[in-house]
Amino acid sequence: MHEPKRHKITVLGAGAWGTAVAIALASRHDVLLWGRNPAQMATLEAARENTDYLAGYPLPPALRVTADFEQACTHVTGASADEAPLLIAACPVAGLRPLMQQLKERPIPNVVWLCKGFEYETGLLPHQVVREVLGNAVPSAVLSGPSFAQEVARGLPCALTVASDSAALRERVVSAVHGGSIRVYACDDMVGVEVGGAVKNILAIATGASDGLGLGLNARAALITRGLAEITRLGIALGAKPATFMGLTGMGDLILTCTGDLSRNRRVGLALAQGKPLETIVAELGHVAEGVPCAKAVRELAKKLGVDMPITNAVAGVLFDGVSASAMASQLLARDPRNELA
Ligand SMILES: NC(=O)C1=CN([C@@H]2O[C@H](COP(=O)(O)OP(=O)(O)OC[C@H]3O[C@@H](n4cnc5c(N)ncnc54)[C@H](O)[C@@H]3O)[C@@H](O)[C@H]2O)C=CC1
Ligand SMILES: O=C(CO)COP(=O)(O)O
C-alpha cells in the first residue's frame, strides 16, 4: 500500500504543464510554483488562475506562487530531510540549460524535469544537458508519459513514468506524485523515456497533417505504428532499452499525442495541412510545440548516427524546406518496400 507522505515541492516554470502539476500536487504537499515573469505571476496570484497558459483551472487555495527565484530555491534547499524536498523543472527544453545554470551554485537536493525533446543546438537529451551543467552529484530524474495538462488539472486519471539512475530519487518521486488520480511507474531507462517523449511530438505533427488532409484512420494507424518503429530505432542507437518504447512514455504518449486534439503538436500538423506558414502557426498557438525544433535536431542526429527516420525527415521537410503536407504524404508512400521488422 502506498504510504502518503507530505513533501516540500518547488515547481520551476508556470506554463500549462508546470501549473497543472502544481495544481495536482497542492492538495497533498507544500507546493510553491515559480514563474519567471513577475507581471504574469502577479496576474496569476490576483486571478488565482493561469489565464495565459491554463485558463479555466483555478489554483487551489493551498498552492503558493512566486516570481522570486531565491524564494523558490530556498523552499527546497532550506527543507529538512524529513520534509523530503523535491525540485521540479517544468520549462521547455530550450529553457532547461539556462534554468540549470541558475541552479548551479545552489545546494539543491535533486532535480526532476518534465520537458520533452532534444536540445536544439546540441542534439543532447535533457539528462545530458542537466549533467553537463550540474555534474553527476545532484540526483536527477525525468518524469514523463501521456498527460495533457488540462486533464491533470481537472484531476482526471493518468499514469506517468519516472526514470532515474538514483533509486532513492525514483522512490521520492513516486512517493510525492503517485496518489489520488495519478499513478507513477518507475524505471532506470532515462534515454528510452526521453527519446520516446521527444520523438512522439514529431509524429503528432505528422498525424495531425495526415488527418488535416483527410487521409483517413488507416493512414493515422500506419503513421503511429511506423512512428513507433522509428522511435525505437533511434532509441536503440542511443542506448535505450527496447521494452521502454512499449510503455507509457513510448507507445502510451505516442497514441495520446497523435490522436488527442488537446495536443499542440498535433494542432501544428492540422494547421500545416491547411497550408498555413509555420511562423503564423507558432504565433497563433501561444504555447511551445516541442516537435518543431525537435524535428530539426532529430533529423540531424539520425543522419549522423545512420538511423533511418523517414517520417521525421518528411515532417522536417514540411517545417523547414517548403515541402507541402500533401507532397510529404506522397513521398512517404512512394518509398521502396521494406521488411517490417528490419
Ligand atoms: N502541456 C502539456 O500538456 C505537457 C507538456 N509537457 C512538456 O512540458 C514542457 C513545458 O510545456 P508547457 O508548460 O506546456 O509549455 P507552455 O508553452 O504552456 O509554457 C512554457 C512556459 O515555460 C516558460 N519558459 C520558457 N522558457 C523558459 C526559460 N528559459 N526558463 C524558465 N521558463 C521558461 C514560459 O514562460 C512559460 O511559462 C514542454 O517540454 C512540454 O513538451 C509535458 C507533458 C504535458
Ligand atoms: O506531452 C504532452 C502530452 O503527454 C503534450 O503534448 P503537446 O505538447 O503536443 O500538447
TrEMBL record:
Q: Which domain of life is it from?
A: Bacteria
The residues responsible for catalysis, as annotated, are K200
What is the reaction catalyzed? Answer: sn-glycerol 3-phosphate + NAD(+) = dihydroxyacetone phosphate + NADH + H(+); sn-glycerol 3-phosphate + NADP(+) = dihydroxyacetone phosphate + NADPH + H(+)
Where does the UniProt annotation locate this protein? Cytoplasm
Pathway of this protein? Answer: Membrane lipid metabolism; glycerophospholipid metabolism
Start and end residues of each Glycerol-3-phosphate dehydrogenase NAD-dependent N-terminal domain: 8-167
InterPro entries (alphabetical): 6-PGluconate_DH-like_C_sf, 6PGD_dom2, G3P_DH_NAD-dep, G3P_DH_NAD-dep_C, G3P_DH_NAD-dep_N, NAD(P)-bd_dom_sf
Question: In UniProt terms, what function does this protein have?
Answer: Catalyzes the reduction of the glycolytic intermediate dihydroxyacetone phosphate (DHAP) to sn-glycerol 3-phosphate (G3P), the key precursor for phospholipid synthesis.
Q: Where does NADPH bind?
A: W17, R36, Y53, K116, A149, R264, V288, E290
Among PANTHER family, the record links this protein to: GLYCEROL-3-PHOSPHATE DEHYDROGENASE, GLYCEROL-3-PHOSPHATE DEHYDROGENASE [NAD(+)] 2, CHLOROPLASTIC
Q: Which NCBIfam families match?
A: PRK00094.1-2, PRK00094.1-4
Q: What class of enzyme is it?
A: oxidoreductase
Q: Which UniProt keywords apply?
A: Cytoplasm, Lipid biosynthesis, Lipid metabolism, NAD, NADP, Nucleotide-binding, Oxidoreductase, Phospholipid biosynthesis, Phospholipid metabolism
Tell me the protein's name: Glycerol-3-phosphate dehydrogenase [NAD(P)+]
Q: Which parts of the sequence belong to the Glycerol-3-phosphate dehydrogenase NAD-dependent C-terminal domain?
A: 189-328
Q: Where are the transmembrane segments?
A: none
- Which Pfam families does the entry mention? NAD_Gly3P_dh_C (PF07479), NAD_Gly3P_dh_N (PF01210)
> What protein family does this chain belong to?
Belongs to the NAD-dependent glycerol-3-phosphate dehydrogenase family.
